[in-house]
Every structure is written in structure tokens, then in C-alpha cells.
Task: structure prediction
Amino acid sequence: MEQPNISYIQNMSGGDKNFEKKLIGIIKSEFPIEMQVYFNSMKIKNFDDASEIVHKIKHKISILGLDESYKNAIAFEHGLREGDIALQVKFETTLMIITDYLKNFE
Amino acid sequence: MNCIIIDDEQTARAIISQLCSDTNDLNVVEEFSNALQAIKYLNQHEIDLIFLDIHMPDFTGFDFIETLKKPPKIILTTSDDHFAIQAFEYECIVDYLLKPVTPERFKKAIHKVAGEINILNNKDGVQNFDSNSAHDLYVNIDRRLIKIDIQKICLVEAKGDYINIKTETDSFRVHSSLKKIKEKLPEQLFVKVHRSFIINIEKIIDIEDNSVLINKDVIPVSRSNRSDLMKRLNLL
Result:
């Protein structure tokens, strides 16, 4: 299973550690909220809303260098619009991996 | 350039803001998490550039553009590549950045915007884009600035509201005039031989009475311009 990394963030920052810290801080605060919105939408089977939030979450997946998971998120987002949830488990596994990874940052 | 960022995702705004802060002459004056706030702001403030997310709840980036009477230059930022065709329907959209945006791609987009704003200021398709690149000429073709090595230009032909710039290998059709481009070309190298033609003296193959052969083109030489041409030649 691929693991998150901060290569993109480091490339972006050009060595600016304050920016790296700031961006990770923003992701840490935004990601759990978006994840909650996702689970709430799935719970009530509102797949349109779920698709919208997956769209937003997938940006963070790509920022964290999870290339395969990003492709899965794109497919899942499109599938949700048709009510197709075949990729749900795979996507939610990615959410858990990111959640664990973000815990490493103080 | 003063710019604003419109994106409902804070992470995306932070990335664009950081990229702007690393760019000379690019000043982020405001950030908005929704398009409606931005519309209010734009009613009272003039800005040069908007970084605009397409995919926003309630009000998409395209909806937002439709509300603007006189939109400034816009760079779209999106995670979807399938909006690209729609984006080209809007003259104000200069570029289309896929998230996550890389510094290299961002620089290209800003270069394009700077070029377009320069063109608007000059109101002409031909310009020296940068004073450090005096050997090159930048021409605006289909909203792209194409660099042409001046030394490689064989001739320029006027055709109505356009000019054709011919090099040995390419031809560029540009909305401009012969008079305008003449001002941009070095006098020691280029001479007007006809009301519709400027030629590069170094590209001449031979000269007959009323014409000159350049590459494979036979160019007419008008009676009034012939003496100017002859003065420029190293005659034996």
C-alpha cells in the first residue's frame, strides 16, 4: 500500500519551513472536516454531495503524493454521480492512511 | 499585478498565495472562499488577475465569470481537465492550471498573463517582450506569445490588417502593420523595398531590375524604394 509523503509540499516551499508547517497545519484542520462531511453524505446515501466532497479531498490526496489513490478517488468521484459505490472501501482506506499520517505532525 | 484568489478550499488558496509571494510584481490583495464575496469585492476594486477555482458549491467558476461585466485576466485552477474546452470560450481566461499546481507550471501561466497585459497596454500584436531579449521578437498568435529570432526573419509581408513574418522554416500571421514591425526591427538589417514588403538584406540571394529573390520568394521592389536598397548593398 502506497504511503503519503510531503515531496510536493517541499518542492512548493523551496525550503521555506514556515510555509511547509503552515500548509500541513491547514491540511490537518481541513481534512477531518471534509472526511466527516463525506461520511455523513454516505450515511444518508446522498451520493451527489459525497461526490462533491470527494472532489475536494482528492486534491489533498494528490498533494500527499498518493498517486494510485488519487486515480481511485477520481474514479470514485465519477462513480458516485451514477450511484456507483464499488470503490468506496478503497477510498475509505486512503482516508484512514492519511488520518494516521497526519497524526505524525505536531 | 494585483490579484485575488477564489477557491473554497483553504489548502488550495494557501498554495496559490505562496506561489504568488515567490513571484515578482504579483500581489495577492484578497482571498475568497466563495464567488459571491468576490463579486462584491470586484464591484468596488479593480484588479489585474483572478485565480479562480471552477468547482465550487452553489456558484461555479464559470457562473462567476458570467456575472462580470468587464472581467480581468483569469487563470483557472481545477482538479478536472475536462473543463479545458469550455475555458477557451472565454477570452478573459488566459490559462488553466491543474491541481496540485507546480511552481514550474505556475510560472508559465504568469508569463502568459504578463504577456497579454503588455499586449493590451500596447494595443498591438508585436512587441519586444523583454528588454533583455532584443535579438528576439515576440508576436501574439492565438493568445500565445511566440518568440522569433530576428536574425532568422527573411521578410515581412503586409496583408490587410495582418502581416506575414517569414523565416527560412516558418511563417507567422500576426495582427499588426508593416509600420509597427519596422520600428521593432534593426535598421542595419532590414529595409522596406515595397509598400507591402520589408526584407532582411542578409537573406538576399539575387536582385533583378524590379525584384529581389529571398529564399524561394520573389519580392517586388518599387521604384521609390530601389535607391534605398541599392545604397545598403556592398556593390563591387
